[in-house]
């Protein structure tokens, strides 16, 4: 009788426990929302990101994923200032990045692709053409395996990951449920699904500090909303590709400082100051900030200076180093152009 009772109890409990899936299915269920969020922010197909994550982590079981929360095998590189771990990959005891949360790994993967010149051509591809992206990654040297592209495509087609290229962060959990109908009996999954109907999925919550000022509650709430809106705007900055050889840059949407941008895009403050020839760490709305070193030439032959523009403005507009711009135009550093002055961006200004 006791054995029968135990058997019945186990059957009842199993009805309400999480489904048992193959490792890669579990990975898809858990990390598809991250891939879709990154697609919306950086225009990288969710299917590609998810397939790369599946492959790099062995369905979430690799040492890098389990111990370092590193889902894409991104190595330290010279600009990484975070935690690290040693792991044998192409060579013994190589340095790999360590994250506090897998979500950080997903965003760092997006930044890695969107800020390096090798991958510039990918962002000219159709975002829903996962095959072109797979072959483009291989061609750009993302992986050494000669079958890398076909392996990615195989995973995308086996698990129908291309479905996530046609959804949004608001609807991604419904796409997962459609793919795995038995999840309707999984309480933990359904608990995630229900709130998503009413709550807009966003990035990590923004902590807002509001200076105290004796005033009415309504006025204080307005101040909170203004500050909160500014913080959210800054957190939504997207990386752009400059016409000058695809240089990666951003446009500052609200007044901020170099430290904020450095932390957000994982670039040292000193490099940002150097690359953008900044004299102070203050950044103003509509300032152009490059996330890599600018070029020695512009992408067009000449330009006529407009009212209110200085040489630094022109250097930022065309992605050219300021000292090179001065040299091309036979001007002393600090000298500013007059309105309508012809500025040379590729060749040196002819002598009079």
Automatic annotation (TrEMBL):
Pfam families: Glucosaminidase, LysM
Top-level taxonomic group: Bacteria
Any one GO molecular function term: amidase activity
Domain LysM: 301-345
Membrane-spanning segments: none
Keywords: Antimicrobial, Bacteriolytic enzyme, Hydrolase, Signal
Leader sequence segment: 1-22
InterPro entries per record: Glycosyl_Hydrolase_73, LysM, LysM_dom_sf, MGlyc_endo_b_GlcNAc-like_dom
SUPFAM superfamilies: LysM domain
A GO biological process held by the record: defense response to bacterium
Entries under PANTHER family matching the protein: PEPTIDOGLYCAN HYDROLASE FLGJ
Protein name, entry field: Peptidoglycan hydrolase
